[in-house]
């Protein structure tokens, strides 16, 4: 079979989406695919570009990994721009001299930032805001500066202003038009946005035209505005809109629009039927779509057509919801009410700073557009009315007015048609979600995995949950949150009962609130709750039968029934003397030794009866239990920080020690890991931990609820530039709130995903003390910290407890069935085959 | 030539009541065989003796498992891969064909006795 050749020019988000969509189809096999990419790295997430300043790395933002492209079988040519198209012979040539034939050519060349031709705009301190390299340059220039100016008060301009603020500059926005975000917002919305942004310390200059940029004494820049005003600054970022990157198409004689842009029809084909154009380089109906979602739709259209299916691109909705410098902004449809016969309903609350305006038809039946500033809670509902052309309720103003009786008239999932798009990033309809639930997905998480809904920008999470819940209810499936057959309560409810009634034993709990005799689910859960609240030794009589084997013997059982021993090495810092002790103990008991991923030393192969002796030696040398066996704090990983590292800005080891010593011994629903990095290079990988701390010039950034493991999740940035005391205070509160409210064995990431209101709610609880419980959370943590004991130290000094570690209660003989063999100069458990061989020598 | 195996069933004193751990398990070595003993003071009977060898995990660890009630029946959950073995007859609830040996066991004063074939 001769495969058809697809050449893709450009590897931005839209080009990547095209390749990803194609890779997931069976027809993929019919094509040879080659990609030209002018940038040094494959596609990355430009929508979240600003987070690069917030600690996310180029890797975090990457969408197309080189390995992924290799797995897909694509020929990816990085750092090699396409420079010519020979349409007659269907050949593309590249900067490196490659010359490649195509059957189908995809132009995904994107756009470039428009820089107004103001004299002086070429100065080396003038930048654009488009690529990671641009951001690197801005960051470097900001180092010695005090003031930064963004030219352009649109969506991206405001984001750039926020970035300058984050870099520690005094930020200004200069906009030619009379208002900010004039495309998306009406006058009222724009005015309120301006007020809010100025409150945050960004100076806004509207109706301001720059006539000249000149260098003044001392190397700074002076912007001369029309009308004799001027502003001195250290750098300027242009964000005055985009222009389609159409030069390659132009030189190949492909039809362009009057003001640029590659003209495409509703199949995304250009004037040459073998050539598609998708994304921001394409001009459809005389319009360039500067959002990623329409670009994705174009990409999917092109993939479908290449695979022989009928598909059309018929324009896209430009509604947007976003948070700019912490201000919520939403714009739907015809925000300005420009269409004839429009009527508007406006709600303004000057006290709280909320502006909402709905544009309807004259009869008030259909929603044509809306503007929301300060509160976008109604966005999802309004958007669905608009996109699905649904009839508005009798009193449409109810949709934006604050609900007096507390019950907001949210749009029920039932009211939406099956065709309603719930997730526009991945084009998932209500029908797709209903289908997934009917196909066996029983939770929002499963539906996410299955349909990819809410995995893009995440803006549709709440609506997705509504649809999933409604469908589950319709199927008669009640989600059962009972802990186990013995307790018809959730872990959180049991936690509260134990706390309020001061229950100290499992028997009491079972008699009061449960039934039967308990099981391996409720017993360890109860033990964990008792430990979190009362912090008694797990070998106290009432608790000993509740523990899983690891907790019972305070070591991790390994596959042959022996245990591993993991002493605490806080922050990964250890003295040579202690290292030697570990080596001596390991040698004496012939333990296999391995450095763990959490910067500790694992000693494997200890027999049950050896554990107390080993721990006596370790305790004598000053070691404490590492709780490697418990659902509790494991490790706090650290880099060397400012003490040794030439880049470190804070003492990350010191902070890691503080944190680890504070929370060691805290029993929790799931194991907890933390890390502290001394600078944004993030060598401690703090963003993959439950609690991650990254040093900044001004203090610490706190990340929460990340994890590695089976389903990795990046931690979310929770608060920035904290001092030591506030950092600890917030961690106390987050952890204790988690310990109290999480489900059994629920890790922080899943807990956060299931927390209604998500990260914002967590911030309200922990930072703003919305529930008024922060004192209590801190008190409880103080209690746990204050009652800490090294469980091993207590155990080896209590003969009754030591008795528990006998292999046999009636003899000192050893378990002969434990067999080791040697490998790489250490011993390991023998496999079954090896044991048979040893037993029956040939 | 045929061999005749002679077995004698005997009650053997294994350990003291104080060697047991309430609501949990310990292990004894009886006639070269590892036997897990569970002492559940609130249950009737109070004592259970079951093979310590977990045939699924291939390790002698049953005595270190957690006692769990499943559908009204007392079981021990193997600490390695969490299969449940019924304390009364040794039946594995997850694998029908797997069943552990159990042994008659009783208190005599402070002594723990096991009936064991030798």
Overview of this protein structure:
The complex is a heterodimer of chains A (842) and B (118). Chain A is an alpha/beta fold. Chain A has 28 helices and 38 strands. Helices cover 31% and strands 21% of the residues of chain A. In chain A, α13 packs across α15. Chain A is globular and about 95 Å long. Chain B has 118 residues and is mostly beta strands. Chain B has no helices and 12 strands. A 4-stranded antiparallel beta sheet of chain B has the order 2-3-4-10, with no helix packed on it. The radius of gyration of chain B is 15 Å and the shape is globular. Chain A binds chain B through residues 485-486, 507, 516-521, 523-524, 541, 544-550, 552-553, 557, 559-561, 608, 803-804, 806-811, 813, 815, 817-818, 832, and chain B through 14-15, 19-24, 26-30, 34, 37, 42-43, 53, 57-61, 64-72, 74, 77, 79-80, 82.
Spatial order of the strands in the main sheet of chain A?
3-2-1-7-19
Class by alpha and beta content of chain B = mainly beta
**What is the residue-mean pLDDT of chain A, rounded to a whole number?**
90
Uncertain spans of chain A: 405-409
Please compute the radius of gyration of chain A using only Cα atoms. 31 Å
Based on secondary structure, the structural category of chain A is alpha/beta
The coarse overall form of chain B would be: globular
Blueprint of the fold:
The complex is a heterodimer of chains A (842) and B (118).
Chain A: E1 4-9, H1 13-23, E2 31-36, H2 58-61, H3 66-72, E3 75-77, E4 82-86, E5 91-94, E6 99-101, E7 104-107, E8 111-113, E9 126-128, H4 132-142, E10 147-151, H5 155-166, E11 170-174, H6 187-199, E12 203-205, E13 210-215, E14 221-225, E15 230-233, E16 235-238, E17 242-244, H7 247-251, E18 262-264, E19 275-277, E20 282-284, H8 292-306, E21 320-324, E22 327-333, E23 342-349, E24 354-361, E25 367-373, H9 379-387, E26 421-423, E27 428-429, H10 430-438, H11 444-451, H12 461-474, H13 491-500, H14 506-513, H15 522-534, H16 541-544, H17 549-553, E28 556-557, E29 563-565, H18 576-588, E30 592-595, E31 601-606, H19 611-620, E32 633-638, H20 641-644, H21 652-663, E33 672-677, E34 691-696, E35 699-704, E36 716-722, H22 724-741, H23 748-754, H24 758-766, H25 774-786, H26 791-796, H27 799-803, E37 820-823, E38 826-829, H28 832-839
Parallel strand pairs in A: 1-2, 1-7, 2-3, 7-19, 9-16, 10-11, 10-16, 11-12, 18-20, 32-33, 33-34
Antiparallel strand pairs in A: 4-5, 5-6, 8-17, 13-14, 14-15, 21-22, 22-25, 23-24, 24-25, 26-27, 28-29, 29-31, 30-31, 34-35, 35-36, 37-38
Chain B: E1 9-16, E2 24-30, E3 33-39, E4 47-51, E5 53-54, E6 59-60, E7 66-70, E8 73-77, E9 84-86, E10 102-103, E11 105-108, E12 111-117
Antiparallel strand pairs in B: 1-12, 2-3, 3-4, 4-10, 5-6, 7-8, 8-9, 11-12
